[in-house]
Amino acid sequence: MSSSKQQALFKTLIGSLALAGSLVASQAQAAATIIINNINAAGIGFNDTTPAAPVGGNPGTTLGAQRLFAFTYAANLWGATLTSNQPIIINAQFSALTCTATSATLGSAGATSVFRNFAGAPKTGTWYSYALANKIAGTYLGTLNAAQINANFNVNLGQSNCLAGSPFYLGVDGNHGSAVDFVAVLQHEMGHGLGFQTFTNGQTGAYLSGAPSIWDHFLMGTATGLLWKDMTAAQRAASSLSVDKLVWSGPMVNAAAPSVLRTGDAGVFISGSGAGTTAGLHAAGEASFGASLTTPRTGQVMPVLDGTALSLACSPITGTNATAIRGNIALVSRGVCGFTIKVKNAQDAGAIGVLVADNAAGAPAGLGGTDPSITIPAVRISQADGVALLSKLTTRSRTGSTVIATLGLFGTKMAGADSLGRVMMFAPNPYQSGSSVSHFDTTATRNLLMEPAINGDLTQSVIPPLDLTYILLQEIGW
Fold first, then answer.
1. Interval 187-220: pLDDT, tens
2. CA–CA separation, 180 and 366 (whole Å)
3. How far apart are CA 274 and CA 281, in angstroms?
4. What are the structural domain ranges in the chain?
């Protein structure tokens, strides 16, 4: 995902950390018991003694205490949802993860080990994540009380060089504003550790030690009509890049989808006497911020230019550009700064909507970010559509054009599902290591917990009608 996207990313991993010296920080008990091992050193991460005022239902008075409280709260949410007679042990720490001023890896998590052919395994010759295998087997596999999940979180989030101005919100009430809701991040990362991932290499298509994951029994490539478990390695590698042709075939998830996903896809309908060959409906990526597309927005399209090229709109829009977009729909380019910055600059200059033209070929994904002050709609369009639209705007006046755009929802397909109602999985081209395949697609609306990037409107529910995460986990064996 481009660094120009002011958004935070998740990554999945398979690894192991030694338990030596770890501390049992807290425990959440319900239908399943979740034990959190704090493996940070003194004064770091979960042990940070920096004073902090209680916030949003979190009573901690130091930064570390608040982080631990939020983790326990999120663990309780999962613990109340899951059923297992075996404890789920998580090694957790804060450390420095990948960052730029406009993007950041929020965290990474995954199973410490995988198991196959254990007693009670529903599928033979198939890998299951550690916690799921323990649940199915009804006994502790491997080393007794070894951690089943590793979780790591970005200690620098919110600093000037790490998603500047968007730190973790440590309250548990969901009132995160423009900050990143730590509870949602925790729920997401625990979801990966519980088994929301494949252990097959998406880039090469190679199985882990020659065996498919339980995930691969449900992952289908619609270009071939084959499940991943039945594909060749080359077919799986191609499927991981297929954009909108990777779906979840499981009947439970797809039966629940209509109660969660909205009907109608984001799109832009171009009309007007100047539209020429651009006339008609174009695919668009929906923004996670700003006005909803459920109420269509129509206006003339006007470009924001740097010379003759589309502007990145990363600075306040002034002069002739401001005159051009006032009362109109602004056309700007993706790149360099976050989407919320571009759209807010256009809004401040008087635009009633924004088209963000992609800077790379391919189908347009959504626009991520959070800014409650944005009240206009925005969508991302393809690079090809942006080039074509700009060519039709060369004869515009200073304040208007004869190219009209309507931003809205079109058709009867569910947002985040294919035409047959199968929920789509994330398969961008190029491949995004740690994100591709093991997430729901970013076109899902409502936004889902297990998309590859955090969205500001997530709730703390993992079940319908608010989410599909737990239904998928049930389908693989939970």
1. 999 999 999 999 999 999 999 999 999 999 999 9
2. 18
3. 15
4. 7-194, 228-260+416-475, 263-412
Cβ distance 392 to 274 under 8 Å? yes
Largest CA distance in the chain: 74
- Kindly state the tokens that stand for 366: 């959504």
Cross-strand partners of 33: 29
Strand pairing category for 149-154 and 88-95: parallel
Q: pTM (2 decimals)?
A: 0.81
Task: Please provide the size of the chain in residues.
Answer: 478
The predicted structure's pLDDT at residue 365: 84
Q: Which of 195, 206, 236 is nearest to 219 (CA)?
A: 236
- Which tokens in the block code for residue 15? 């690894």
Which residue has 């199915």 as its token pair? 136
- CA 60, CA 68: separation in Å to the nearest integer? 9
Answer whether 78's CB lies under 8 Å from 184's CB: no
Element (H, E) at 142: none
DSSP 192: H
Is the CATH code 3.50.30.30 the one for domain 263-412?
Answer: yes
Q: In whole angstroms, what is the distance from residue 375 CA to residue 321 CA?
A: 20
Cα–chain-centroid distance for residue 378? 18
Task: State which residues of the chain have pLDDT below 50.
Answer: 1-30
Angle between the N-to-C axes of helices 130-137 and 182-194, in degrees from 0 to 180, rounded to the nearest 10: 60
| Cα–Cα dist 28/472, whole Å | 22
Residue 191's contacts (CB-CB under 8 Å, 6 or more residues apart) are 78, 449, 450, 462, 469, 473
Sign of CA dihedral 405, 411, 416, 420: negative
Radius of gyration of the chain (CA): 23
Query: Quick one: pLDDT at residue 362?
Result: 87
